[in-house]
Design brief:
Length: 118
């Protein structure tokens, strides 16, 4: 039961983050895109670049940020590279990886270029 509750809370957080980006002019291209390297929660186009978005939900933004480990970030980066291979400019496509944190109140904090942590 708890696992199902967490799953639905995660979906709700992803929906909130999707609306957050859309309100800022992003166009959603994919939700839960899965490649051989891993899964990306959301992929959007914004200001001429692709944005790969990892959504983390927890009681606080700090706790949510702690849920992204180095290995998971590396899997996201591998999936992003795989996705970019299908784009017209390939790996030369302007892109970034964002970490979207959602707290218990539903507030969203975005860390742009979180891929720089890897």
């Amino acid at each position: 039961m708890r696992q199902q509750l967490n799953y639905h809370a995660g979906l709700a957080a992803e929906g909130a983050v999707e609306r957050y980006y859309s309100a800022r002019g992003a166009q959603m291209r994919h939700q839960r895109w899965r490649g051989r390297g891993g899964e990306v929660d959301l992929i959007a186009s914004q200001n001429g670049e692709l944005v790969f978005i990892e959504v983390k939900k927890s009681t606080t933004h700090a706790q949510a940020a702690q849920r992204l480990g180095r290995r998971q970030l590396q899997r996201i980066m591998a999936a992003a590279e795989e996705f970019l291979a299908g784009e017209p400019a390939g790996l030369l496509t302007p892109m970034r990886i964002d970490l979207a944190l959602v707290n218990a109140a539903g507030e969203i904090e975005v860390i742009e270029n979180a891929g720089m942590w890897a």
